Amino acid sequence: MLQTTQSISLNGSSVIDGASVVNFSTSLSADQAYSSISMQIVDMELYKANKDKVREDRDTFQKQADTLVDGLSVSESK
Q1: DSSP state at residue 17
Q2: What ranges do the domains of the chain cover?
Q3: Closest Cα partner for 31 from 57, 6, 61?
């Protein structure tokens, strides 16, 4: 029996005044109950000055990841 699983990578950036401050990434698949997000700080000074905005962006990224994983499926064929 063939079993297939959809998976995707999602990447995003928190951009402040045209500058990338933080990069977000995650890998999603239908058989995961929870997705883990990686966050890489690109500009520490901008991050420190804009933590609230970056955290809003992180939360938005998490919501997008949750929506995507909810739409993925596992299928089996006999």
Answers
A1: T
A2: 2-71
A3: 6
Give the type of residue at 77. S
Q: Smallest Cα–Cα separation from 44: which of 25, 72, 70, 16?
A: 16
Contact 78, 61 (CB under 8 A): no
pLDDT in tens, 9-38: 999 999 999 999 999 999 988 777 677 899
pLDDT for the residue 28:
87
- pTM, full prediction: 0.81
CA distance 11 to 39: 10
Task: Count the neighbouring beta carbons within 10 Å of the beta carbon of residue 70.
Answer: 10
